[in-house]
UniProtKB/TrEMBL annotation, chains A, B:
<feature type="binding site">
    <location>
        <position position="82"/>
    </location>
    <ligand>
        <name>substrate</name>
    </ligand>
</feature>
<feature type="domain" description="Radical SAM core">
    <location>
        <begin position="22"/>
        <end position="238"/>
    </location>
</feature>
<keyword id="KW-0456">Lyase</keyword>
<dbReference type="GO" id="GO:0000287">
    <property type="term" value="F:magnesium ion binding"/>
</dbReference>
<protein>
    <recommendedName>
        <fullName>7-carboxy-7-deazaguanine synthase</fullName>
        <ecNumber>4.3.99.3</ecNumber>
    </recommendedName>
</protein>
<keyword id="KW-0479">Metal-binding</keyword>
<comment type="similarity">
    <text>Belongs to the radical SAM superfamily. 7-carboxy-7-deazaguanine synthase family.</text>
</comment>
<dbReference type="GO" id="GO:0016840">
    <property type="term" value="F:carbon-nitrogen lyase activity"/>
</dbReference>
<comment type="pathway">
    <text>Purine metabolism; 7-cyano-7-deazaguanine biosynthesis.</text>
</comment>
<comment type="function">
    <text>Catalyzes the complex heterocyclic radical-mediated conversion of 6-carboxy-5,6,7,8-tetrahydropterin (CPH4) to 7-carboxy-7-deazaguanine (CDG), a step common to the biosynthetic pathways of all 7-deazapurine-containing compounds.</text>
</comment>
<feature type="binding site">
    <location>
        <begin position="16"/>
        <end position="18"/>
    </location>
    <ligand>
        <name>substrate</name>
    </ligand>
</feature>
<feature type="binding site">
    <location>
        <position position="44"/>
    </location>
    <ligand>
        <name>Mg(2+)</name>
    </ligand>
</feature>
<comment type="subunit">
    <text>Homodimer.</text>
</comment>
<dbReference type="InterPro" id="IPR017742">
    <property type="entry name" value="Deazaguanine_synth"/>
</dbReference>
<keyword id="KW-0949">S-adenosyl-L-methionine</keyword>
<keyword id="KW-0460">Magnesium</keyword>
<keyword id="KW-0408">Iron</keyword>
């Protein structure tokens, strides 16, 4: 069977992972096009709102590996699959296997609305169900199923919830309580995507991170958690491709 | 046998871990007094330079647990042992066991110059050998022994090297190459401990972090690493006890 092409919007790196369980990791990014969600504050809305539809390239897994090497040279050993929602693409299994064959580890970011069998081959998997402020509804049955399968497969995975307000934090606590044994990351949301001056963005991001720390520190139901900023926005602001 | 007292300088929290493998983790801190090192840029020099010798309290493990509860209430499930060098204190085993008995996880930060049998009961252990800019000499034989024992004991541990300059980065690469299977964190050093205005400190810390990212991204011998700032200094500057 011929390889099924993968819709790709960005390939870049090496850079530093800014989020969750992989924060700080030296990595390359492959950003796929298409999403089943429409989060109100999505920082990659160009993957689904049509604004970048002319930039979508349909690439074979082998071509993606070639392009990663062309850009990253020999200076990478880790690739992050992000979107959009890469979990819409059954054909990503081929890419993961090719990367593993080269000794490269693979991380995935997805909201946990869809399962793919290749989840069981991901080295570091982040499930980030979306809180009320996103405007999305969580499919708890789908999420239960994914968490259950990942546990069974004994994969290194975590939950991450972005929080913009108190309602979001309640949602985070609910997710954490539902999956108590799973590593949990609370992340301060960036509600200021229009700010192009990163020096002006930083005090706002700091304030939001302190807000979240303060809230989490006081709650006994959020003791076994990590609280993190979106580190790359502190360094590079709202710039794309870094 | 009566409990041997533990020399303590600070007990505080809950707060957020700012470094390495535990970055973002909600934790309490217990800072012990005394160190076998005298790093030129130590951010906790009061633990060994005599300036806080009147603040050292000799506490039983049970009293430390009591104080943690008095300060943190029921809002913690994680304690970080830091110093100074806690590895100088054989009596910390008692504290670790008491915390575990309460369902509390324990992390340790140490330079890796001394072994203690209780290392095998630490949940998240960070070994941070010191680079040339510290003015210290690494005892490679001691470090080899500690890494070997932790591997044998199948403990969750990592190496962390703080880097201030190119020589430090060479040292980091040497440490990483010596222990290739061990999770490795490179951290940008804070050479501006005298700055009391955190708004003025932040641009400097950002610049140092970007410097380190830039260097690490280019090196093929530093592909499987994490690059992190000292997150708490971005939020709280050089303040103590947060």
């Amino acid at each position: 069977m011929a390889e099924r092409a993968i819709p790709v919007l960005e390939i870049f790196g090496p850079t530093v992972q800014g989020e969750g369980m992989v924060i700080g990791r030296k990595t390359m990014f492959v950003r796929t096009a298409g999403c089943d969600y429409r989060c109100s504050w999505c920082d990659s809305a160009f993957t689904w709102d049509g604004s970048a539809k002319d930039d979508v390239r349909l690439l074979a897994a082998s071509d993606i590996v070639k392009e990663l090497k062309a850009i990253g040279g020999d200076s990478f050993a880790h690739v992050t699959l992000s979107g959009g929602n890469p979990a819409l693409l059954p054909q990503l299994g081929e890419l993961i296997d090719r990367l593993h064959a080269e000794g490269v580890e693979v991380a995935l970011e997805t909201q946990g609305s869809r399962w793919q069998p290749w989840f069981e081959r991901i080295d570091e998997l982040t499930l980030s169900p979306k809180p009320p402020s996103s405007g999305m509804e969580t499919d708890w049955e789908a999420l239960d199923g994914i968490v259950g399968r990942l546990k069974e497969a004994d994969r290194r995975f975590s939950l991450k919830v972005v929080a913009f307000d108190d309602l979001d934090l309640e949602y985070a606590a609910r997710v954490h309580a539902r999956y108590p044994g799973v590593a949990f990351y609370a992340q301060a949301g960036n509600g200021n995507l229009g700010e192009t001056d990163s020096a002006r963005l930083l005090p706002y991001l700091l304030e939001r991170y302190e807000w979240l720390i303060d809230k989490v520190m006081k709650r006994a139901d959020l003791n076994r958690v990590h609280v993190l900023p979106q580190l790359h926005t502190w360094v590079w602001g709202n710039k794309k491709g870094v």
